[in-house]
Amino acid sequence: MGIPMGEFDLIRRYFTRPTPRAVLGVGDDCALLQPRPGMQLAISSDMLVEGRHFLSTVSPAALGHKALAVNLSDLAACGAQPLAFTLALALPRADAAWLEPFSQGLLALADAHGCELVGGDTTQGPLNICITVFGEVPPGQALLRSGAQAGDDLYVSGTLGDARLALEVFRGTLSLPEAVFAQARARLETPTPRMALGLALRGIATAAADVSDGLLGDLGHILRASGVAAVIDTSIAMQLIAAGADTLCADGRFDVKKILACVLAGGDDYELVFTAPVAARQAVQAAAAQAQTRVTRIGQIEAASGAPAVRLVDAAGAPVLRQFASFDHFA
């Protein structure tokens, strides 16, 4: 049995640290932030609830990492540079064996991106983590969902679908070779926020969003905000799964539909989906190289003839008549 900890002991021990960039950090009723002159604040919040967003078996260090990563991914989609964040944490009990690795995973990612923990709240209750992150971006340079134009290319970063594979293994609905599962599990539990790419795409991308609930769902936000439609080449999308579409199909437990479901609607990928003019193809590749992040052109933006929608086609341009539903918290 460890030494009992009160709320403020817990905060001092695990979550109080110097904040050289913030005017005032943990310890007062409010933190004080000062963006650089002429910059705008970008702010986003994400909540992770046990049983809904993560399994009870996830390691505390991985959970700390992911809790901040999903918020940084929102800043990346906006093209914003991280500044600081707050942490609201509900815990069943003050357990040092859990808090130590959780805080280490959280703060290691924070340090990697120069994002300071400046405040928050702790309380007793079911495990629930809510982070609000603050970033800065020059006026007029934020990447928004509303700028896509008909004729733009459609891109995604990194790989898609592997997090969903890992989730299905945990649910017991499929099995994977050990090496494939390890890779997929890392994508589910410790995603990489595409900060460098988001910054590099400022002035190049016309619209962007992070892929958290599934590619089709998050692309849909761009289409609705921009009043456009899109077409996706599923033969290219099939190759976005890091586990390897050919390997999975050869295994016999997967077919094209299952793989496409993971890629197009799997969720928990935390990649960027973005649009850019055809004339910017070289600039997009230069931004990807600068950010050391793979980007793939998967389709094109079209004029909307009704409600904004996504057409799925094969390599020959023929329609792929399949329905895929992205994650919805209340569906």
Automatic annotation (TrEMBL):
<feature type="binding site">
    <location>
        <begin position="120"/>
        <end position="121"/>
    </location>
    <ligand>
        <name>ATP</name>
    </ligand>
</feature>
<feature type="binding site">
    <location>
        <position position="213"/>
    </location>
    <ligand>
        <name>Mg(2+) 5</name>
    </ligand>
</feature>
<comment type="similarity">
    <text>Belongs to the thiamine-monophosphate kinase family.</text>
</comment>
<keyword id="KW-0808">Transferase</keyword>
<feature type="domain" description="PurM-like C-terminal">
    <location>
        <begin position="150"/>
        <end position="305"/>
    </location>
</feature>
<feature type="binding site">
    <location>
        <position position="210"/>
    </location>
    <ligand>
        <name>Mg(2+) 3</name>
    </ligand>
</feature>
<feature type="binding site">
    <location>
        <position position="212"/>
    </location>
    <ligand>
        <name>ATP</name>
    </ligand>
</feature>
<feature type="binding site">
    <location>
        <position position="44"/>
    </location>
    <ligand>
        <name>Mg(2+) 4</name>
    </ligand>
</feature>
<feature type="binding site">
    <location>
        <position position="268"/>
    </location>
    <ligand>
        <name>substrate</name>
    </ligand>
</feature>
<dbReference type="Pfam" id="PF00586">
    <property type="entry name" value="AIRS"/>
</dbReference>
<keyword id="KW-0547">Nucleotide-binding</keyword>
<protein>
    <recommendedName>
        <fullName>Thiamine-monophosphate kinase</fullName>
        <ecNumber>2.7.4.16</ecNumber>
    </recommendedName>
</protein>
<keyword id="KW-0479">Metal-binding</keyword>
<feature type="binding site">
    <location>
        <position position="46"/>
    </location>
    <ligand>
        <name>Mg(2+) 2</name>
    </ligand>
</feature>
<keyword id="KW-0460">Magnesium</keyword>
<comment type="function">
    <text>Catalyzes the ATP-dependent phosphorylation of thiamine-monophosphate (TMP) to form thiamine-pyrophosphate (TPP), the active form of vitamin B1.</text>
</comment>
<feature type="binding site">
    <location>
        <position position="145"/>
    </location>
    <ligand>
        <name>ATP</name>
    </ligand>
</feature>
<dbReference type="InterPro" id="IPR036921">
    <property type="entry name" value="PurM-like_N_sf"/>
</dbReference>
<feature type="binding site">
    <location>
        <position position="74"/>
    </location>
    <ligand>
        <name>Mg(2+) 3</name>
    </ligand>
</feature>
<feature type="domain" description="PurM-like N-terminal">
    <location>
        <begin position="27"/>
        <end position="137"/>
    </location>
</feature>
<comment type="pathway">
    <text>Cofactor biosynthesis; thiamine diphosphate biosynthesis; thiamine diphosphate from thiamine phosphate: step 1/1.</text>
</comment>
<feature type="binding site">
    <location>
        <position position="29"/>
    </location>
    <ligand>
        <name>Mg(2+) 3</name>
    </ligand>
</feature>
<dbReference type="InterPro" id="IPR006283">
    <property type="entry name" value="ThiL-like"/>
</dbReference>
<feature type="binding site">
    <location>
        <position position="29"/>
    </location>
    <ligand>
        <name>Mg(2+) 4</name>
    </ligand>
</feature>
<feature type="binding site">
    <location>
        <position position="46"/>
    </location>
    <ligand>
        <name>Mg(2+) 1</name>
    </ligand>
</feature>
<dbReference type="InterPro" id="IPR010918">
    <property type="entry name" value="PurM-like_C_dom"/>
</dbReference>
<dbReference type="GO" id="GO:0009030">
    <property type="term" value="F:thiamine-phosphate kinase activity"/>
</dbReference>
<dbReference type="Pfam" id="PF02769">
    <property type="entry name" value="AIRS_C"/>
</dbReference>
<feature type="binding site">
    <location>
        <position position="74"/>
    </location>
    <ligand>
        <name>Mg(2+) 4</name>
    </ligand>
</feature>
<feature type="binding site">
    <location>
        <position position="53"/>
    </location>
    <ligand>
        <name>substrate</name>
    </ligand>
</feature>
<dbReference type="InterPro" id="IPR016188">
    <property type="entry name" value="PurM-like_N"/>
</dbReference>
<feature type="binding site">
    <location>
        <position position="45"/>
    </location>
    <ligand>
        <name>Mg(2+) 1</name>
    </ligand>
</feature>
<feature type="binding site">
    <location>
        <position position="121"/>
    </location>
    <ligand>
        <name>Mg(2+) 1</name>
    </ligand>
</feature>
<dbReference type="InterPro" id="IPR036676">
    <property type="entry name" value="PurM-like_C_sf"/>
</dbReference>
<keyword id="KW-0067">ATP-binding</keyword>
<keyword id="KW-0418">Kinase</keyword>
<feature type="binding site">
    <location>
        <position position="327"/>
    </location>
    <ligand>
        <name>substrate</name>
    </ligand>
</feature>
<feature type="binding site">
    <location>
        <position position="74"/>
    </location>
    <ligand>
        <name>Mg(2+) 2</name>
    </ligand>
</feature>
<keyword id="KW-0784">Thiamine biosynthesis</keyword>
